[in-house]
Amino acid sequence: MIDIQNMKLAECEALSRWIDPRYGFLSPDKFIPALEANREVYKVDCHVLDGYGQDAEFLREKKKEIFPISFNISRTDLEACDIYQKIEETVARYGLSRDQVHIEITESALNDSSQAMVEAVQHFHDLGYQVWMDDFGSGYSSRKPLAL
Asked: Which residues pair with 3 in a beta bridge?
């Protein structure tokens, strides 16, 4: 994300992409549903956050600026593991601050199980994280902060 007032990078978004040697580029709508159906997408989401932690550690050593990151979590992340604990462990392992990690939840996830997602958003807020609504699959990128 670019801050249009000063035209500088303000935040990054971690996006999962898959380039398969046989099938080529696979967009998330081709592989995420299968991972969600098998309750395995949390592994990708945790890997993405861990990669950010590694990058932040590298940048910190080089005395470079570390920008906040937003990354997606799935509704099934809440069911398949203790995603809160996994995020907290990664944040602690890499010495990140909670304001450097922004959590994005897809709009469709909010519609699927609204009470569970409201509780998840509240729990993330209670832990000190910003939570954003991501309109994944809508054809354009737009995020809105979620407030309860």
From this structure: 8
Residue appearing with tokens 């998840």: 120
CA 50, chain centre distance (Å)? 11
- In the three-class reduction of DSSP (H, G, I as helix; E, B as strand; rest coil), residue 9 is classed as strand
Looking at the whole model, is its pTM more than 0.85? Answer: no
> What digits encode the pLDDT tens for the residues 106-125?
765 655 567 888 889 999 99
How far apart, in whole angstroms, are the C-alpha atoms of residue 96 and residue 85?
14
Beta bridge partners of 14: 71
- DSSP lists the bridge partners of residue 101 as 69
Beta strands in the chain (DSSP E): 2-3, 8-9, 12-14, 18-20, 24-26, 69-73, 101-106, 130-134, 143-145
